[in-house]
Specification:
6 helices; globular; two-stranded antiparallel ribbon
């Protein structure tokens, strides 16, 4: 939800950071629109109906995971600092708020979420982002250009995952080891 936008690490800690500013100025208007532009102006790339249906279902499922994972994490922070306000308006999705989440107490008031989507992956929102980036390119057909977003975004998220891992390990110490024992996978459940 919109109420979660000001709380991510890249805004609160990096002071909006170069990567986020660059992305909002160049990436969003450029890369986000490539697939739409190509769909509008190129000869359509026909796929069987079952593939089109599977793409739409997968895209909606990935969006649901992305939105609710971000909401779970951010609403936990809001509940812990008493700023959470229950909303029942669109686009609040079911399972976006965990009312009694399982978490690791770090002894100094900080917590690590091990419930909801975060019981399966440490970065479920990144995994969903990667799936959506792939589908935006795949929707266009056999052209390279729409996949450039995925080819940029994938290394960016992998690098960010590594940075987060280093930062979290330094910040939480032994509690982070306990967290990784409970949530061993990062982007692909059962693999990595």
């Amino acid at each position: 939800g919109e109420e979660c936008i000001p709380t991510p690490w890249d805004i609160t800690t990096e002071g909006w950071g170069w990567m986020l500013i660059w992305w909002n100025q160049a990436g969003v208007p450029g890369w986000y629109s490539i697939s739409s532009y190509m769909l509008a102006y190129l000869e359509p790339f026909d796929r069987p109906l079952w593939i089109k249906v599977a793409m739409v279902v997968t895209l909606l499922a990935a969006y649901y995971v992305w939105d609710t994972a971000n909401s779970q994490k951010n609403r936990l922070r809001m509940m812990e600092n008493n700023s959470y306000i229950e909303r029942n308006t669109f686009p609040v999705l079911p399972w976006g708020t965990l009312h009694k989440p399982k978490k690791i107490e770090c002894g100094d008031g900080r917590t690590l979420l091990v419930d909801g989507w975060y019981a399966y992956l440490s970065k479920p929102h990144y995994a969903a982002d990667i799936v959506m980036a792939f589908l935006w390119g795949f929707a266009v057909g056999n052209y390279f250009l729409p996949y450039t977003y995925l080819l940029f975004f994938l290394p960016f998220l992998i690098h960010r995952t590594w940075r987060d891992e280093v930062r979290m390990r330094a910040k939480y110490g032994k509690y982070y080891d306990e967290y990784r024992a409970q949530v061993p996978y990062t982007l692909i459940y059962g693999v990595w």
